[in-house]
Amino acid sequence: MFKIIAPNEEYTREIAGVHFIDGKAETENETVARWLEGRGFEVIQDEKTDKKPIGKMTVEELEAYAAEIGADISGCSNKEEKKAAIIAFSEQK
Fold first, then answer.
1. Are 3 and 46 in contact (CB under 8 A)?
2. What is the DSSP string of 24-44?
3. Listed residue (11, 77, 80, 81) closest to 42, CA to CA
4. What CA–CA distance (Å, rounded) separates 92 from 22?
5. What angle do CA 56, 66, 68 make, to 5 degrees?
6. Under 8 Å CB-to-CB from 16, ≥6 apart: which residues?
7. What is the pLDDT tens value at each position of the chain, 93 positions in all?
8. pLDDT value at position 63?
């Protein structure tokens, strides 16, 4: 996800399929985000939303992600339990 900030904070319109309200917008289209950046818009890439969704991760990806965020999944015996434990851990934060 890319957050885009217009040079004018009152900018409220659509450009390149991106809807701005009060100078702010979001898009998942990196090409459009970079195009806007080249025209003076500030582009901020939101790293949290660029991760693969937990529901689409493999067991190995779930284990790596759990280690990255500090979630204990040692008592989980299958993929569904690991997903549930990671989600529960994330909701506690």
1. yes
2. EEEES-HHHHHHHHTTT-EEE
3. 11
4. 33
5. 110
6. 32, 35, 36
7. 889 999 999 999 999 899 999 999 999 888 888 899 999 999 998 765 456 777 788 999 999 989 988 999 999 999 999 999 988 887 775
8. 93
Which residues, listed in sequence order, are joined to residue 45 by a DSSP beta bridge? 2
Place of tokens 């917008």: 25
Other Cβ atoms less than 10 A from the Cβ of 39: the count is: 10
Closest CA to 83 of 48, 58, 54, 61: 54
The pLDDT of residue 93:
59
What is the distance between the alpha carbons of residues 93 and 75, in angstroms, rounded to a whole number? 20
Question: Who's near 21: CB < 8 A, 6+ residues apart?
Answer: 12
